[in-house]
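Before surveying the methods themselves, let us examine one representative protein, pairing a chain with its fold in token form.
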Amino acid sequence: MITGTGTQQDPFCPETWEEILECTVTDDVYTQFPLVLSKTADTSVIAGKRYFYANGEEVSEPTASQLDNYYENSFTVDFNDYYPTGVTEEILFRGYVDGRDAKILNVFYDGATCVFRMSNPQNGIIKSLHFINMWVIEAASKEGVWYTSLFRCPGDAYATPSGRVFEYCSFAGRLESAAVAVGGSASEHYRCSYNFELMRGGAIAANRNDGHGVLLTDCDITVHGLDNGTIYCGRPVNSYIHGSMNAIELSGVGSNSIIDLSNLTAVARVNGTPTRILVNLDKYSGGSLRSGFVGVTTSQLMDVSYLQSIGFPIDDGTTGWTMGADNFPTNVNFIEAPKNVWVTPLPYIAWNIDPLVNNGYPYKGVFLDMPEYAIEGEGPKALWRVNLNVSEHPYIELPPEIPAFGAFANANNLVYVKIPATVQKLGDQVFANTKLQNVRISSNCTFSNTTFPPGCQVDYYE
């Protein structure tokens, strides 16, 4: 049952996925995801994570000393249960949607537009919602560059008003020439994390009008290129882009971010010059960097004094950049990133591999154990069968409902018959399904084992 009125002070509180979709069909309404509380296993407070007391009240300022008293939201929507063969129509996801750290799993989309149609920043935002096992594939019929996406703002997304469209959300899965979100260049992803493998390139935040210039603030972005594609990352500010990728392109005036991609051969920018975008030269084999990009080595990235000397704002108390436990820069504002691109079970439409299922071979969907034999027991009577105790040749056992065909077949009251000695041949079913118990025929007369009913004694004339 849905409670609340949809206002900021009294948001809609649905209990199921079906009810959530009833609440998110229009702009300017407020919706909270359901709470399913489970004791947290965290040993330290995770940045950006939502904690709750046993009564459902949210902890305003969580502390490590009180973690034993905290709960977290384990509410999950598994698209395998609702869209097992993939999403085929856009899902309206508008208004101010507070996921309260719930999860959406196993979204598969192979289409021309998007999975979720969301509001622009003036009429809604999605926050604290985590999307795991996303698989978005660009359809051949797409309208324009990076049109196929997981999320899309209203209309053509050319002039989205400024503001945040995501806060404290995480995304993981696979993009095939597709985008996480398509929106106007003034929109912003704030303190989000991403972990994607890419085929034929992809975009974290794209804009079809002016070259993918969506703002990415305090974002932790991990990408794994499966071919020679390009990752488009909009305008990163205080963000970290790492993993492995052949090429990267930024747009607009990003700043104070780090590109730490293995196998990198090309770094490009469009529509403006960024400021202090550090590129790890130990992993880059391309040509000279354009203005706005600063080449550094791994050892220089681990040197606070050097970073400060080139104006990178580490340990200055303003941007969140600091030196992590591994002696490498990190941002304390980053939320916890998905550790893996995929978690099991995968979307049903995807190929799965499980050593305990299907003898370890790949399978799709819910795999049902196969019987040991294709046919057990005698099988259907109409099947061809081989049994040397019955016949030297393959045969079909006729089902009982099919009558025998013969001159006297199926004469149920026939108990006696006199067959002249001149008869030289009797058909296969002449006396089938009768009550004959004894007959006499010429020794030269031919017949089959089905000519007479079972148990009938055959004698011969002298």
The helical segments are 17-23, 79-82, 298-301, 304-309. The first strand starts at residue 30 and ends at 32.
